[in-house]
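Section handout 9: paired folding examples.
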Amino acid sequence: MSDTPRTDDANTYIRTRRDFTITDHQVWQEHGEHLERELNVAQERISRLEEAGDAMASHAKALGMDGTGLVKRWLKSKEDKP
């Protein structure tokens, strides 16, 4: 199975369609716009999660809980971005 199934679906649609009212360019344009919207939503969510994690880590440090490894694990998880 491909790691880009929706792009594969758009490509299959273009290759097999019988509807000539929409151009290949329009199909790819719509597909790209949809993916970009999803990416923007995901990036906003990541930002909110990072802010919340930073606040929790700060609070844990203030309570003296940073020795439990929670803060270290949080900081490592922030570094592990692809």
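Moving on to protein 2 of 2.
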Amino acid sequence: MSVERSEAVFPRMVELRRAIHRRPELAFEEVETAKVIMGELERLGITYEYGGKGGAVIGRIESGGREAPTVALRAELDALPVTENTGLPFASGIPGKMHACGHDGHMSMVLGAAALLKQSPPDGNVLLVFQPAEERGGGARVVMQSGALKGVSAIFAGHVSHYYRVGEIMVSPGAVSAHSDRFTIKIKGRGGHGARPHEAIDAVVIAGMLITNIQTLVSRETNPVHPSVITIGRVEAGTAANVIAENALLEGTIRTTMPEVREQLLRGIERMTRALGECHNASVEVEFSGGYPSVVNTSRETEIAYGAAEKVVSKAGIIGLEHPYLGAEDFSFYLQELPGCYVRFGARIQEDEYLPLHSPEFDINEEVLKVGASFFDQLARDALKSYGKQ
């Protein structure tokens, strides 16, 4: 594994990652995190722009002039509303907030790559994109709408993962994540005494039927070779043990990888809610809100990323992807307008230990910071060389 160039910046990456980890901030609130990023860019002598609270920090390494190609490397500023339970000496000092998705590591990787690129500038320009609100709100759209990426040839990003070991990088063309949608179902029945159900319309019973029946849209109506998931993550109903609930609320998410399956599930949920409302003489309404589209890597940029990964971890360390992950990622908004590639870095701490993203126990093997910084450094150089030949 060729990560020698990043050895010199590794201690600083660890220091930055831990400092960011201690003070996590949620989507569109990442003011202190942005200050850490800007402080490091200033230390490295890299110019930057900051959009203020809710905005991005955009660093610029310009060594090729206006006519030279420009590539962008992206990292995320935000944390999650999770109470940390790792016991780490640098654990979150803010109750209810935690970097449980590795964004602290991503920022450190891109800053490490920035240090390497600044030391030995490539033949071209590199934008360092530290965006807000990946987890909630689609902060990628803020960056795109700002015009900061105008003239960029391609954009690249990566994510730590316990699916893989340190020294492994997942690189795959095409779709690598799912399309996400959210839904809210509001049930209005008729409240009553728990001992006299015949006088009421029980919203809890209807909610229970929906929770069970909606799952058959995946298990019995969707082709099993087409990955899809419906999860109801929030249920709210009732005020007392002896009162039949008049209202109930269900909130959930839909994950799909094919447009026709997505449409099938959306229409299926509409059909079931309408039918159960009529069956129980209740008002049952569903509202959908679009989430993030699928991340679809473009072919040329995937080839460039593959080549960079091969130089860093060798061909043996490159992992393919048989099916897209059903997680969602707002990097997809960049790829709707720009070519690019999204990879995953193995970050497993122990050989046989898997820690899921968003878990209160989530942590990474910090050796992955070397891999990520080396990869982004090599990727930027290779991409600029490729686009410079056009």
